[in-house]
Amino acid sequence: MKKRFGLLLAIIVALFMTVVPLSTQHAQAADNSLEKIQKKGVLVMGTSPDYPPYEFQATVNGKSTVVGMDVQIGKKVAKDLGVKLKIKSMSFDSLLVALQTGKIDMIISGMNPTPARRKNVAFTHVYYQGGYDIVINKADKAKYKNKDSFKGGTLGAQTGTTQYNAVKKQTKNTASKGMTSQSDLILALQSHKLDGVAMEKPSAEAYTSNNKNLAAIPSDFDMSSDATSSAIAFRKGSTSLVNKVNKTVDQIKKENLVKKQYLPAAGKYLKTNTVNTSMGHYWQAFATGVEYTLIITVCSVFFGFIIGILLALARTAKGNIFKTALRWVSTAYVEFIRGTPMMVQVMFVYFGLGLFVNLPALTSGIIAISLNSGAYVAEYIRGGINSVNIGQTEAARSLGMSNGATMRYVVLPQALKNIWPSLGNEFITLIKDSSIVSIIGVTELIYQSNIVRSDTYRGVAPIVVIMVLYFILTFTASRILNYFERKMQHD
Q1: β-strands 50-51, 196-200 pairing
Q2: What one-character-per-residue DSSP string does 330-373 give?
Q3: For the ABC transmembrane type-1 domain, which residue ranges apply (predicted)?
Q4: Domain coordinates in residue numbering, the chain
Q5: Following DSSP, what letter does each residue of 177-229 receive, concatenated?
Q6: Domain 281-490 sits in which CATH superfamily?
């Protein structure tokens, strides 16, 4: 099954542990979950579209769309509730936190209702019962028969999944390798970094039926029913909503809609995906990725520069108690931001502030990267200010200029010229660091490349394309920055 909370999400949840329980208790005290959804008229479904045939991306009428068995179930649930379905894509690790912080209303993403997860969210009845296979290279089919055949080899699985735990606990003399996405695991298998990949039977069938070089063998893992079943997750305390949706789930099971309708429909999309797998066919996806990458970078550079100037001025402030306190606060901010990973900061802004303000993923990404960039820019500017000869300041003051005017017209222009290469390097870095926001579902280049990989089952080609695109972006930006640097030196 899919991933549980990752380590980063455990950190985020720990930061919110004093807030989330309060909202959960309130929901339990007054359950209006069903009424709230019906009044809103929209049901937001969170999913991670990298898990065919449960959920994956397919090109429908020239547009990349999330399809699959789980999407059909989500449409059925929304129809029975009398509301519209809205699908929000994000990494699987982000789904549970997104549900708890109100970013989404439900999770349908091949999620298994384990006891650990039941402590945090409410599950419906099981809508699908599956099992596990191991995907191998077809050339090795005579060599491997089940999990016990991999002694001395390496088995891979998605990090945090029940398959991954089974590989670690139920195999002997076998190395385990965890990765965050199925596409990465299949790529590692085909490049012989792995000897096999443990995954669910439907997913194994999807990959092997669309790649003649792969084959599936029985896993023979000893797994509980919870670990091989799928259910819909809602916020804890959503009793009325869960009870209503259970009626839909029961109908789906009674009429056997998953096997009769939903899986066959997903299979058709899987076949459609492999009709044209050329990278040129997906130019719109890559163009969208470039567009969002540039939007994030330009906005983050602009706001980061403003934040950096304010922090740098605060850090160089001297005088009364207020200025001293301002200097301490700015120093603490810079040290804290530089001492924590940007990925955690992005998740904190999106999910943490999401407890109070429902910010879109793109806005959250820009805010997080701007705040991060501001801390680094502040140090560049502070270094630039310190590099200006003190005589410049003394000369300006002797002419009657105020502190503010001296800083604005004399010191900062010279400092900017000194630190321009560092600022240019920060801009180039942000172009590449913008890829981090893909974890919250922003459709920049990395996100779009993952979509193409899921669509085409080609692992290397999309990576090559985005490498070239990133190089074009960074090379063009560096040439422009070098042009302005030469002009400033000439002036």
Answers
A1: unpaired
A2: HHHHHHHHHTS-HHHHHHIIIIIGGGTS---HHHHHHHHHHHHH
A3: 290-481
A4: 7-127+227-275, 132-222, 281-490
A5: EEES-HHHHHHHHHTTS-SEEEEEHHHHHHHHHT-TTEEEEE------TGGGE
A6: MetI-like (1.10.3720.10)
Tokens representing 279 are: 């990278």
pLDDT(234) > 90: yes
Is residue 20 predicted with pLDDT exceeding 70?
A: no
CA distance 54 to 203: 8
Residue 129's nearest CA partner among 238, 226, 243 is 226
Class of domain 7-127+227-275: alpha beta
Supply the pLDDT for residue 276: 66
Tokens encoding 230: 């799928």
Residue 142's alpha-carbon distances to 152, 175, 288, 468, in angstroms, are: 16, 20, 44, 39
Q: How many CB atoms lie within 10 A of CB 301?
A: 19
Check: CATH 3.40.190.10 for 132-222? yes
> Per residue in 122-164, pLDDT tens?
999 999 988 889 999 999 999 999 999 999 999 999 876 778 8
